[in-house]
Each structure stands twice: as structure tokens, then as C-alpha cells.
Amino acid sequence: MKIGELSHRTGVNAHQLRYYEAQGLLEASRGTNGYREYDETALLRVRQIRHLLAAGLSSEDIAYLLPCAIGEEPELIGCPELLAAMRERLGRLDEQLAKLNRSRDALAEYIVVAERVGAETYPPFDGTAA
């Protein structure tokens, strides 16, 4: 199938499919006319890629994981190298979440202080002109 059909059948635009190919995530042969040709396995591969991207994995991580992927969701075969890579990624996500939580807490504290100082400085508006 050509890239337009793969795009239509997966809901992934052609630009993204070319990106997946450039990243080594998806393979296409070339017809005599030079157009990309995908076999039926490309449908499953694109679905796997989309699920793994939704899990927050980078295209580099996915390239490493795809040989261990089975099924659409996909299910991953747990070899030691694969588990180490996924644990490392999970650790990076945990660090990002901790940083976001610290930022959130600091912002919430600024809001509390600003509301308290604002209430002390500016009396409540009662609707009458001064």
C-alpha cells in the first residue's frame, strides 16, 4: 500500500509516517515509480509506535523497544536490556514530575500570599463609587 492508504487506515498523517521511517521505526520499499510501498505489517507497526509514543517514550526509545513488541498495544518481551531502558525512562519521568510538583507548590504559595496581601491592601469592592 502507498503512504496515503497507510495514513488513511491508521489515522496518522503522511508527514509523521515519513518521520517514523527516517527514525528507523517503519520500513518501506520503493516501487519502480519511486513511491513508498508498505506491506500489511506496517499497520500493526504504526499502531505500536502510537501506543509507545502515548506512553511518553521517545522515538529513540521506541526504536530500541520495537523488536521486543508483540501485538497492537503492544506487549513487550522483558529482556534485561529492555527493562533497564524502560526503568531509566521511568526514572526520568519521575524526575520531571517531581520538578513540576515543586513548581506547582511554589506557584500555589505565591497565590496564597498574593491573595492575603491583596485582601489586606485592597478592601473588598462593595459596588459603590468612592
TrEMBL record:
Check the record and name the InterPro entries matching this protein. DNA-bd_dom_put_sf, MerR-type_HTH_dom, MerR_fam
Instruction: Cite the SUPFAM superfamilies for this sequence.
Output: Putative DNA-binding domain (SSF46955)
Known CDD domains for this protein? HTH_MerR-like_sg3
Taxonomic lineage is: Bacteria, Bacillati, Actinomycetota, Actinomycetes, Pseudonocardiales
DNA-binding: is it a keyword of this entry?
Answer: yes
Query: What residue stretches are annotated with the HTH merR-type domain?
Result: 1-68
Q: Which Gene3D superfamilies match?
A: 1.10.1660.10
Q: Which keywords fit this entry according to its UniProt record? A: DNA-binding
Q: Name one GO molecular function term.
A: DNA-binding transcription factor activity
Mind telling me what this protein is named? HTH merR-type domain-containing protein
Organism field = Amycolatopsis japonica
**Which PANTHER family is this protein grouped with?**
HTH MERR-TYPE DOMAIN-CONTAINING PROTEIN, REDOX-CYCLING DRUG-SENSING TRANSCRIPTIONAL ACTIVATOR SOXR
